[in-house]
Amino acid sequence: MLPKPWVTLGASGAQDSQPATDKMKVDAFTRYVGWSDEDDRQLLALLPRTEPHMDAMCRAFYAAAMADPMTRDILHDAAQVRRLMATLKVWLRELLVGPRDEAYAARRRRIGEVHVDVGVPHAAMFAAMQVVRAHLVSVAAEDGRCEAKTLLAIDRATQLDLMLMTARYHEESQERRAVNSQGLLVSQLPAMVALIDAGGVLTSCTPAILRRFGWQGPIGTKLVDLLPQSMVDTLDLAALIDEVFRKDRTLTLPNAEFLIDGEPHTMTLTLGPLRQAHQLALLHLEDHTTAVRTEALLMRQQHLARLGSLSATIAHELRNPLAGISGALQIIRKGMDKEDRYAPIMGKVLDQVHALNRLVSDLLAFARPRQPEMQDSVDLCQLAREQVDLLQGDTDRHRLHLDCSPEVALRCDPVMVRQILNNLLLNSIQAMPEGGDVYVIVRPEGLRVEDDGPGLTAEAKAHLFEPFHTTKVHGTGLGLANSHRMAELMDGSLRAVEPLRGVGAAFLLRLDDDASFSQPTSRRVDLSE
């Protein structure tokens, strides 16, 4: 069964046309040699005189065949030669008896196919047939007279059989030329195209697909061993290749999603057979990753613009009333005695008003982010050390570790980087209420924050940087959204990555997206001490 996403583009519906081809060949060849009913009568009359000589003819036939070194390498087994001699006797009888119909042609075709498959040279068949012709002429001339009609029938019969059997050599040559032409054509295409045989083995491919997957010397290797495992597993590629050849149909999978080098990619994959005797199929890949990402980014920007406009309106409407409420509460609280039983309640109310005010500030920051003020040669290690020192002083349950490469100076907005780092560190600390370790790794490419906490759920990963989406009871869902936006404003990126220690959550802030992030060193400053 095909996976549901696959769409059948078309199937040939062709039935086995070989019997019809055999009939056409035998009709055409008999006309070509000028075959007549008289030829049938002459050969049938020759049969009784030929049968006593069958064994000698077979021995002479294979003696001539074994004179060729290539044939001798193939027919090296004496028992095999004895079996072939018995088959040759059947063939000699049919040569004289007929009838020369499509079944006769099919048997000759199969003889030719076997010779091609085992590698008998083309010329060896001509030499062997000449031996048969000479023996038949010798038998016909035994009584001292040989009619011209008999010689003509022998000549036509051996020519006809030779034509039928060697036709397969001609077909093989044509097919090889077609395969070579297709391979040459494929190698010049600018698209990602590959040719495979019925066993799924790569026979040719374009430079574009070589570059895309980094193949080195792939010809002769199974396609399932060359493509990324994510593609092979998602498509059940081996079964699909079998389906394409078995049912002679072309299949396409639009916008399939795979992981290549750990990054998500979107491709349309088309796999279809090439209708020829040499079974080949063409694989065509179209990479839509850039287009899909651009479309998703555009939609996200439109969504954020609408959400930002709404957030700005709400923040504006809330800020003034909150300021009035906060001022009034502070005045009332100052007029209360310290022993007033409502004083603690008033403090809690003020705390909630301050929390609402922070939410309004976050909304405004999200709705109207300021443009970055980029500075050259910002000491990222010093910035990270200050921020980590600040947060370490506020917690005694968590141990903050800093791992810095020497002399890390980058172009960035230090205020934005500080805000991003603060958000990431707070997220890690809040993810481990019972305490734990948080690691900050600074490299010339940017910085990485990871922890030993419970990690990110699939649901959290799916909505990681969406505004107002949070798993915290008291969270606003704007910290990571604002951090992600600030990273983009600095022409950088912020994303979740696999933790180096195999547990917890990890985030990578890159300020140079063209560089690769190096592994942590063994040198680490423990700021919990």
Enumerate the strands of the largest sheet in spatial order, edge to edge or round the barrel: 1-4-5-6-2-3
* Quaternary organisation of the protein chains: single chain
Estimate the global geometry from the Cα principal axes.
rod-shaped
Strand content: 15-25%
Summarize the structure.
The chain has helices at residues 18-33, 37-50, 54-66, 69-74, 78-97, 102-118, 122-140, 148-188, 207-213, 229-235, 237-247, 289-334, 343-367, 380-392, 414-431, 458-462, 479-489; strands at 7-11, 192-197, 202-205, 249-260, 263-274, 280-287, 375-379, 398-404, 409-412, 436-443, 446-451, 493-497, 506-510, 525-526. It has 529 residues and is an alpha+beta fold.
Question: What does the model show?
Answer:
It is built from 17 helices and 14 strands. It is of the alpha+beta class and 529 residues long. The strands form three sheets. The protein has a six-stranded antiparallel beta sheet with strand order 1-4-5-6-2-3, sandwiched between helices. A six-stranded mixed beta sheet has the order 12-13-11-10-8-14. The chain has a two-stranded antiparallel ribbon with strand order 7-9. A hairpin with a 2-residue loop joins β4 (249-260) and β5 (263-274). The longest helix has 46 residues, at 289-334. The chain starts with 6 loop residues before the first strand and ends with a strand.
